[in-house]
Amino acid sequence: MGKRIAVVGAGLVGIGWAIVFARAGCDVRVYDRDRALLDRLPEQLAGILDDLVAAGLLDRADSVRQRVVVCDGLSDAVRDADYVQESVRERVDVKRELYAELDAHLNPDAIVGSSSSGIPASRFTGGLSISARCLIAHPVNPPYLVPVVELVPADWTSADTVDAVHELMHAVGQHPIRVARELEGFVLNRLQGALLREAWALYEEGYCSLADIDATVSKGLGLRWSFMGPFETIDLNAPGGVADYAERLGELYLELAKERTTPEPWSEELVERVEIERRHSLPADQLQERTRWRDRRLMALSAYMRGQPDT
Amino acid sequence: MGKRIAVVGAGLVGIGWAIVFARAGCDVRVYDRDRALLDRLPEQLAGILDDLVAAGLLDRADSVRQRVVVCDGLSDAVRDADYVQESVRERVDVKRELYAELDAHLNPDAIVGSSSSGIPASRFTGGLSISARCLIAHPVNPPYLVPVVELVPADWTSADTVDAVHELMHAVGQHPIRVARELEGFVLNRLQGALLREAWALYEEGYCSLADIDATVSKGLGLRWSFMGPFETIDLNAPGGVADYAERLGELYLELAKERTTPEPWSEELVERVEIERRHSLPADQLQERTRWRDRRLMALSAYMRGQPDT
Q1: pTM of this prediction?
Q2: Where do the domains of chain A lie, and which CATH numbers do they carry?
Q3: Overall average pLDDT of the A246-260 stretch
Q4: Hey, of A20, A226, A247, A285, which one would you mutate to test binding to chain B, going by the most B CBs within 10 A of its CB?
Q5: Burial of residue A155 (number of CB atoms within 10 Å: 0-12, 13-18, 19+)
């Protein structure tokens, strides 16, 4: 991987991307308008790389760290880049302003992928000379542990751009998925949102505690879903495959869908009840420590997964 | 665990339960009306126990195997039982007939849990002397690898019965969850169904291939969900916890729910397209081998999970 990568935006997402690309052997130049973020990047980067080495996910931290260069100006970061991973704030005006600047600095073949988790590319990449070379490349945080990346083109994104980013993501060890066209929430958050909708409703209706709903996933559904998706799961859950499964269970699932036709907001009162029950399980002053536990578990899982056969 | 357990129904689910209880040190007596199932049980049991030993999930197969006794008659299997795990066919008439028989044979304190994956207990446990001691104890297959068990009482199930089965399941290493009252599909399949509803719709609308939707879960959402449930996941996904998360993303999820208000059946044409795409990924003659791969992956994951800290 001799690719030259620029990462614009040095928050947690940007740092995560810097690690993904540098780990794969790319030269990475990082820029952020906020000088304070750039100043603390080397230390944060070193901390994460040390954790990855300790988890057996990385051989040497030094060589990766050396491939990440902090830049003082946007132009300096992006002008020689083959690919720019934009990871600035999730606001249309902020992104629009940045893309206009990128338009002035990029070389003619450079491609820009946005880490946007919700705003589609058509809202901030139109009317530029680079429009056809812009798309969404939405990661899960942190991308160096969770490989999926959603590639979502705008109407004006060229097919070559999607193909090139698909190839690049694959080459750096991510798992790119192609979304045919723009849609609200992309695919990952739509799947998560569908499950959450049911989970919140079951809690609101008094069927289950939060802890028990959580256990239904973490001690049940989530075990298979950590190595097989929902379609493969049901394909293997009836002797004759997915058509057989649909024959057996399609009607039940239709009945369940009929009970969820009215979109209910998470009311203030409901959110308050959920917040109280969660804070009972996990007091606010332990949120940070629990987040570190989650990251350690993700690292251990990632290391474990590497040794597992795909067939 | 000196409990005396009866397992009625010697299909895959029944065998799975026999292993759960015998592994925990209980004496298990198994009966099935179908003599052929009973005849092949010892060999199937031995095969699974050998696999568990090979995966490092069991020290010795012999002692577990010896605790499982095949019985010629229902009365012989259940008359001294403290707990009966009913795992017969998923049909109301079959279950009704069996429960009437159980009513005649059980000792006065015995409890019956049904493995029913969809039919609620009120449809087949009413009007008996044992009614108050019957409930649903719905496992995921295979229960010796996937610990969650949904406990769903009928209106007439006593609170003591739910408590006693909760304690028993916990004692034998399962993860019981309490569902407050009956509902279609219980909790696990409702959560799965909600995610499937969105997944089928995204495929039908041409946004994504099945393989890419699957990867969004298996290389994304499913990694965290294998050790944290959906509520804990979002609680840790905003600096201020779940209320902060709801503030940031509640509106997006409401918008997504508004797009899914009409329950759509999985049409014949859609099922056929899904079947064709799945058979392209996995030809029919490889379904069995892939199922064995899934079971090996589940065993390896289960062994891995044992060493992981919960905090």
Answers
A1: 0.95
A2: 4-178 (3.40.50.720), 188-306 (1.10.1040.10)
A3: 94
A4: A226
A5: exposed
